[in-house]
Specification:
This protein is α/β, with parallel strands linked by helices. 64% of the residues lie in helices and 7% in strands. It is built from 22 helices and seven strands. The strands form two sheets. Strands 4-3-5-7-6 form a five-stranded mixed β-sheet. Strand 1 and strand 2 form a beta hairpin. The protein starts with a helix and ends with a strand. The relative contact order is 0.11.
């Protein structure tokens, strides 16, 4: 074997090792820290309620309170995981990792189809080591599932359009429509807009819109998408009239167009400055957004010096539409969260592979070194969250209640605020009391009840009621009390 072959083999060994290392790092970290308030714990409780009530049509925000804020695909997946592995953090987060692996597989297929085997490997390496992708691959949120469906739509569209094999093209065209149906169950209309926007913009030049209508089996494809998505929407609307109006008008238009929207029944608005989405994109794609930014600056300098070296081809234009449509769409939106940029991480990975794939031997050492950063940071973050994860979770406070030597424990009552994690880790048994009268109404006469307060709120109660309790434990700004014997 030549030295060049050995060096090349060594480089690819490190690529494979880093991909596996990143995946295993995320897999083994899934159950090592609590579900966090508010989002993870909220969805964890919704999933737990689905398993408890065995109602697979309507997710519940609380007992008797339907959750209509998002379609249920990600809730179904975690509920199935709970059924298999039990109600725990690992089971709650595992479907997100599986969906993220699905996104990796799609990007590998798309990159290999368009650019070749070498670029496909680089794409997978870049995607799994992008900060946001790796973090959210183990988070109980709708975003990894939505990203899988958007990646399926955009990947299958490209292959279905460009494959020279007629049967292969038709398969991917039907997968395109299947992805549209799944996207409706993953995030609703928003997912179709975020996937359809890049396709529409790419199709504008050269009469591609007309070709799109001619090439794809729209009637059968729309029927396939409808068969996947409509049964749940129809069933849920019949059970809860008004669901479609809230989900399609409120969640998809009012939330983003009206910064003061008061219609959110399940959370609070996340108001940010205009253009904040670009900061989230820069941070979420670390370290690869910094690489891309460097390439852009170099090309701008060459353009300034009138020595441009980049010529956009059809594939490059498609990737730029994929990467830029979402942040441009949200540039003038103030109501957003940092996870919104996850669906463009596959495009970022493909662009990096496109830029450096042909000169892999020249840049591989530096790219591999960059790829080690996020898995190592993930390990450090996991260790920190294991030791400090209760900062945004009630898991440890409730654990101290469970281990308290009380023969007949009564209610667990949260005064003035009851975090979602309290409901999840108490299996729905944590109660809420907003005033002293509600507390006394929930106390047993023959059992020792527990009271959880925060920020010194115990002082808001009358002295006789305070004297009925003694401190069990403190955690952060929460205190657990138990009735004296």
């Amino acid at each position: 074997m030549t030295d060049a072959f050995l060096k090349s083999s060594s480089r690819w060994f490190w690529v494979y090792a880093l991909i596996l290392f990143a995946i295993l790092t995320r897999l083994f970290s899934l159950g090592l820290y609590p579900l966090m308030d508010t989002s993870e714990a909220r969805y964890g409780e919704i999933v737990r309620l689905m398993v408890e009530t065995n109602d697979w049509i309507i997710p519940y925000f609380d007992y008797g309170v339907p959750f209509l804020g998002k379609p249920p695909l990600f809730i179904w997946l975690s509920a199935i995981s709970f059924k298999i592995f039990g109600i725990n953090e690992f089971a709650a987060r595992l479907p997100s990792l599986i969906c993220s692996l699905g996104s990796l597989a799609l990007i590998w297929k798309l990159a290999r189809f368009q650019m070749g085997q070498q670029q496909a490997k680089i794409s997978v390496l870049v995607l799994i080591t992008s900060a946001m992708f790796l973090v959210l691959a183990g988070a109980l949120l709708a975003d990894p599932v939505m990203t899988l469906t958007i990646t399926l739509i955009l990947s299958s569209f490209w292959i279905g359009w460009h494959s020279q094999n007629e049967s292969e093209a038709l398969r991917w065209q039907y997968l395109f429509f299947a992805g549209c149906g799944l996207a409706l169950l993953a995030k609703g209309l928003a997912a179709l807009v975020l996937a359809g926007g890049p396709i529409f913009i790419w199709s504008l030049p050269k009469g591609r819109l007309i070709l799109l209508w001619q090439r794809f089996p729209w009637i059968k494809g729309i029927a396939l998408a409808a068969m996947i998505a409509f049964p749940w929407y129809i069933s849920a609307e019949l059970r809860n009239p008004g669901l479609l109006e809230y989900m399609f008008i409120g969640e998809h238009f009012s939330r983003y167009l009206d910064s003061g929207w008061q219609g959110d029944e399940y959370g609070n608005a996340h108001v940010h400055t205009l253009g904040a989405i670009w900061g989230y994109l820069l941070a979420g794609g670390f370290p690869w957004t910094l690489v891309l930014l460097g390439v852009v600056l170099v090309q701008l300098w060459k353009f300034w010096k009138k020595k441009p070296t980049v010529k956009l081809q059809e594939w490059d234009y498609y990737l730029l539409c994929w990467l830029l449509f979402l942040p441009l769409f949200f540039t003038f939106t103030t109501n957003l969260i940092w996870t919104y940029t996850l669906p463009v991480m596959p495009a970022l990975a493909l662009i990096i592979a496109r830029l450096f794939g042909e000169n892999w031997s020249r840049y591989s050492a530096r790219l591999i070194a960059l790829a080690t950063l996020t898995p190592l940071l993930m390990i450090v973050t996991t260790v920190v969250m294991m030791n400090d994860g209760g900062k945004k979770s009630q898991k440890y406070l409730i654990a101290s209640m469970m281990t308290h030597p009380t023969e007949q424990p009564g209610h667990l009552i949260y005064f003035m605020k009851r975090p979602f994690s309290a409901r999840f880790y108490s299996h729905g048994q944590a109660l809420l009391a907003n005033n002293e009268k509600e507390i006394t109404g929930q106390l047993h006469s023959d059992r020792r009840d527990f009271l959880a307060t925060r920020d010194g709120n115990i002082d808001m109660l009358s002295e006789p009621l305070r004297n009925r309790f003694e401190k069990v434990s403190d955690y952060r700004n929460w205190t657990l009390w138990v009735e004296k014997e």
